[in-house]
Design brief:
325 residues, alpha/beta, Rossmann fold, 2 domains, four-stranded antiparallel sheet, 11 helices, globular
Length: 325
């Protein structure tokens, strides 16, 4: 299949007074056309920074210091500010984690969504309004014409997130990046939003990069998944493969931390310790201080991603004895 997005050796660092923070440290990631790919991991592992790097929305003191981000073969990092503005919101769009902080409270939601049409598709205000009402209806917003003139605070959390999805879809992008779009929603609304995203992706044929810490969302929506930890990719595989044949101890810990209806009175499994301070990373494998299968080699060297199955890779010394020599 054709590759839509290729991230090669991406390094994103934050230059702080206390030192350099390697938030994303040389990751490789691919998204094929018409595919939904998940990026999963705990808070602070670099998922959102990777997404903001693709959008080129990093703010000071963050800076991309290495690598390539290819969209349909074109390197986004070599584009001028004008070129990237023409692509952002047009070819690539983003659904943010909390719509209340992403929508401007002093403008109506309709006006905010219409702005992208007017800017990128050169529509008149009347044409843009018609297009926005149409997209509002598509994403399941009731009384779409009336909601066009509503302010963000007048809508529920679920409706605000539907507005954000409409805003992301309005220019028919090739790639949508969804940064934990269901975090602030209750489970019923979450299920509706996930179904909506899957349905809209099927209709528009766009690719989606789904950033989440919720493996339930990954199982429901994604076809391929990358597991991130402390700025590195720990494991990557097809979704069924990663659930069926979990390879990395970190992925195993994430999967076993999910509450189950059949659990009874058993204590919920937890991964010991915390995500490391990126200013003071452990030597060797970054997960080694928390790993229950740690070996001596893990504390000395950083393992490479190696094949552990069909289209399945893990960064772990438990596999590939040649890496331990």
């Amino acid at each position: 299949m054709d590759k839509l997005l290729e991230i090669k050796g991406l390094k994103t660092q934050f230059f702080t007074k206390r030192g350099i923070v390697p938030a994303v440290d040389g990751i490789d990631l691919e998204i094929e056309k018409s595919r939904i790919v998940g990026v999963v991991g705990e808070s602070g592992c670099g998922k959102s920074v990777a997404a903001m790097s693709v959008m080129r929305l990093l703010q000071h003191p963050g800076k991309i210091t290495g690598g390539e981000i290819l969209l349909d073969g074109r390197d986004l990092l070599k584009m001028t500010d004008t070129e990237i503005r023409n692509i952002r919101g047009n070819k690539i769009s983003m659904i943010f984690q909390e719509p209340m902080t992403s929508l401007n409270p002093v403008y109506t939601v309709g006006k905010q969504v219409a702005e992208a049409c007017i800017l990128h598709q050169k529509l008149s205000k009347a044409e843009a309004k018609e297009r926005v009402i149409d997209i509002f209806e598509q994403v399941g917003i009731p009384e779409a014409g009336k909601r066009f003139d509503a302010y963000p605070h007048q809508l529920s959390g679920g409706l605000r997130q539907r507005v954000m999805i409409g805003m992301a879809l309005i220019c028919k992008p090739m790639l949508m990046i969804a940064d934990e779009p269901t975090t602030a929603l209750d489970v019923t609304i979450e299920a509706q939003i996930l179904y909506l995203m899957k349905e809209m992706q099927r209709q528009t044929d766009a690719s989606i990069m789904m950033i989440t810490h919720n493996l339930g969302v990954v199982a429901e929506l994604c076809e391929y998944v990358y597991v991130m930890y402390a700025g590195k990719i720990m494991e990557k595989a097809d979704v069924r493969e990663i659930f069926k044949n979990t390879a990395h101890p970190y992925t195993f810990g994430l999967l076993n931390s999910i509450p189950r209806l059949t659990q009874g009175k058993e204590r919920l499994y937890t991964i010991k310790g915390m995500v490391p301070n990126l200013l003071n990373l452990p030597q060797g494998c970054r997960f080694s201080p928390r790993c229950n299968r740690v070996m001596e080699v893990c504390t000395k060297s950083q393992p490479e991603l190696i094949a552990v199955g069909k289209n399945h890779y893990a960064s772990c010394f438990l596999y590939g004895k040649e890496t331990m020599k």
